[in-house]
Write a structure and sequence with these properties.
This protein is mainly α. It has 7 helices and 3 strands; from the N terminus they run αβααββαααα. The protein has a 3-stranded antiparallel β-sheet with strand order 1-3-2.
């Protein structure tokens, strides 16, 4: 990703390259496309991010409309430099592998301290949450039949990732207890002076 753009900035800039929009419309698109599943853009941060992009010369105000309550809404579009920065950052985001830091792995790394029955319950809750998330994302995708191919690809990628985790989780839950790491730390004898 372009070193000058955060993921949130790139997301908003890309939506403005796609089509000039005002802040409320950006929020609607983010919600409709399920983008909050993979971005950290809340409604309250949209205007802050728009100001940052504007101050950096990547977007500009191109029009003003009146909303339902008569309030003026500024419509923003990309500048030429904004389009170039968006293209560079998007290409880098597609090409580069970056580490992710899923809390699940932190939990698994500390699994020995979880009592076996609580671990089973936690894995069951995760399985239920995965099924709900897959259903919700699938419904959001299916509610937008005429979406562009790149938007469908985002939904499909998310669903593929969730399905892969669901498959892994199913196999992990079905494994014999001896196939999983121990759920209790091994006891040490008084003579065992292993590393601290």
């Amino acid at each position: 990703m372009d070193a000058d753009l955060t993921s949130a900035e790139l997301t908003l800039l890309g939506l403005l390259v796609e089509k000039p929009r005002h802040g409320y419309e950006l929020d609607e698109v983010i919600s409709a496309r399920g983008m909050r599943e993979w971005t950290e853009i809340g409604f309250s941060s949209i205007y802050y991010l728009l100001a940052r992009l504007r101050d950096r010369g990547l977007i500009t105000e191109i029009d003003t409309t009146r909303g339902a309550r008569g309030k003026a809404r500024r419509i923003y579009g990309p500048t030429a430099e904004g389009r170039r920065a968006c293209a560079r950052a998007a290409e880098a985001a597609v090409a580069e592998l970056r580490p992710v830091f899923p809390p699940l792995l932190v939990g698994l790394a500390n699994q020995p301290v979880i009592p076996p029955e609580r671990l089973r319950a936690a894995l069951d809750r995760r399985a239920a949450a995965l099924a709900e998330k897959i259903a919700a994302i699938g419904a959001a995708r299916d509610a937008q039949p005429g979406m562009p191919g790149f938007v469908r690809a985002i939904f499909d990628f998310s669903l593929s990732q969730l399905a892969a985790e669901q498959q892994w989780l199913s196999a992990y839950r079905a494994a014999e207890p001896g196939d999983r790491p121990p759920t209790e730390p091994p006891s040490r004898s008084a003579d065992d002076h292993g590393p601290l």
